[in-house]
Amino acid sequence: MAVARATVAELREFAAEAGFEDVDADADLGGGWSVVYCADPPDGAAAALARRTGAPVLTVAYLDSDVGFVEGATFAGGRWKALLNRDTAEDYEIPVDRFPVEAALAGALDWAAAGGLTADPDGVRAVLTGSEAFAEDLTDRLLAALGTAPAAPGGEGA
Fold first, then answer.
1. In the beta sheet, which residues pair with residue 36?
2. What's the pLDDT score for residue 104?
3. What is the maximum alpha-carbon separation in the chain?
C-alpha cells in the first residue's frame, strides 16, 4: 500500500509511473490524503512517489499479514523505515535490530510534520512497539497516530 497527499486519481497515476502493478483498491483518507493498494510495491517506491507527488509518502509491504515493512519518504529527501509486529517478525527470524524504534519514531514525526500533520508521538511509539493479529491493523493505527485517517482495503474505488 502507499499513502500520499494526492487525490485518488493522482495517486493511482503516480503509483503506475513508480512501478506499482495491479493496483486493486484505493481510498480517499480525507484532508487531501489517499491510499492505493497493490500486491507488491516496488523497492524504493516511497521515494519515487514522494518525488512525483511533492509530498510525503508512506508505503507498507506485508508478509502474510503478519509483519509490515514501512518505508516513509519526503519530497526533501527524508527517509525512514519501520517494522510492524516486531514479536511476530522475530518468529520469522527477521533481524528487528535493523529497524530501530527510536530512529523510526524520529523519522515518522518528521514525516508527519513535512505533511502538515499533527502526530501523536506516544501513539506512534505504541504502534512501532506493539503487536496485533494482523499487521494491517497496526498500519491503520500508525496512520491515525501520524494524523491521517485510516481506510480499509476495498474502500472507495475498489
1. 2, 26
2. 98
3. 38
DSSP state of 65: T
What is the model's pLDDT at position 156?
Answer: 40
List strand residue ranges (DSSP E) for the chain, in order: 2-5, 25-30, 33-37, 57-63, 67-73, 79-84
The pLDDT value recorded for residue 96 is 96
Give the Cα separation of 23 and 117 in Å (integer).
Answer: 26
CB-CB contact of 26 with 37 (8 Å): yes
Q: Within the chain, where are the H helices?
A: 8-17, 45-53, 86-91, 101-114, 121-129, 135-146
In the predicted model, residues of the chain with pLDDT beneath 50 are 151-158
Predicted confidence at residue 153, as pLDDT, reads 45
Domain spans of the chain? 2-146
